[in-house]
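Dear colleague,

Thank you for sharing your sequence with our group. We've completed the structure prediction you requested, and as agreed, I am returning the results in plain text so they can be pasted directly into your records. Please verify that the sequence below matches your submission; if there's any discrepancy, let me know and we will rerun it promptly.
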Amino acid sequence: MDVRSAFNSGLAGFQDASVQLSNASSRIAQAGITEKSINDSQQATGSNSPLAERASTSVTTELINLKVAEFQAKASAKVITTADEMVGTLIDTSA
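Please find the predicted structure tokens below.
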């Protein structure tokens, strides 16, 4: 197995996790702003909107996405660590 490909796979997975984390965080922040707008609108009109339920569902989904990104980053870090250990073993074996 090519050790560089293992390093590259780990790095790519870590970068993907970082992007997913950033996107989920951004959507959570936007949902908070949207939810405040919905609540202000509901107070003004006195009616309940299904948009409020959708906003809270969106936040829940994005919190799950944050956890998925965390696990992806941890798995990618283990791939990088394993590739590093392989390099160490190869150096020890050939020395």
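Summary note from our side: The chain has a mean pLDDT of 82.

Kind regards,
the structure core
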